[in-house]
Amino acid sequence: MNPATPKGGIVAIGGADLVLGLGLLGIESIAVHDATTALDALRGALERPDAALVLVDEAWLETLRDTLEAAAQDSTGPLVVEIPSATGAAAADELHGRVERALGFRLRE
Predict the structure, then answer these.
(1) Most confident option among 1-5, 76-80, 88-92
(2) For residues 32 and 98, what is the distance between their CA atoms, to the nearest angstrom?
(3) Which is higher by pLDDT, 98 or 68?
(4) Per-residue pLDDT tens for 22-36?
(5) Which residues, other chains included, contact 22 with Cβ-Cβ below 8 Å and sequence gap of 6+?
(6) Do 68 and 56 contact (CB within 8 A), yes or no?
(7) Model pLDDT for residues 31-64, shown as the tens digit of each residue
(8) Are 10 and 28 in contact (CB under 8 A)?
(9) For the whole model, what pTM was predicted?
(10) Is the pLDDT of residue 9 over 50?
(11) Residues 6+ apart with CB under 8 A from 100
């Protein structure tokens, strides 16, 4: 095993598109549709002894903020990483950049 590879599993939490994409890569993914299922999924992932990395769709960050902040204080749990959503701010910025490159000039200052 590569020493840089985390020991344990990876769990992704997010919407249907994220779950489908990461599931095709072999990453265990949990689809969430509302605040209750998102919170349950995160709590379950954080309690798993085999989870080394938890990926959370940025679309759910605000909903999960309190639990994520508590998890950040626990040095024994898995690492939690935000990943961009297909419809989130990072996606909008990326699209904006592509349009600017296609047009050849900046749209905003």
Answers:
(1) 76-80
(2) 30
(3) 68
(4) 999 889 999 999 999
(5) 12, 29, 55
(6) yes
(7) 999 999 999 999 999 999 999 999 999 889 999 9
(8) yes
(9) 0.73
(10) yes
(11) 106, 107
Q: How far is CA 108 from CA 73, 90, 92, 102, in A?
A: 39, 16, 13, 14
Residue among 44, 63, 62, 65 nearest 54 (CA): 44
Instruction: Give the three-class secondary structure for 109.
Output: coil
Contact present, 63 and 43 (Cβ < 8 Å): no
Q: What is 24-36 written as a DSSP string?
A: HTT-EEEE--SHH
Which pair of tokens denotes residue 48? 């798993």
Residue 43's pLDDT is: 95
Task: Sketch out the chain's domains with CATH numbers.
Answer: 9-103 (3.40.50.10580)
**Residue with tokens 């903020």, as numbered in its chain:** 65
- Helix, coil or strand: residue 107: coil
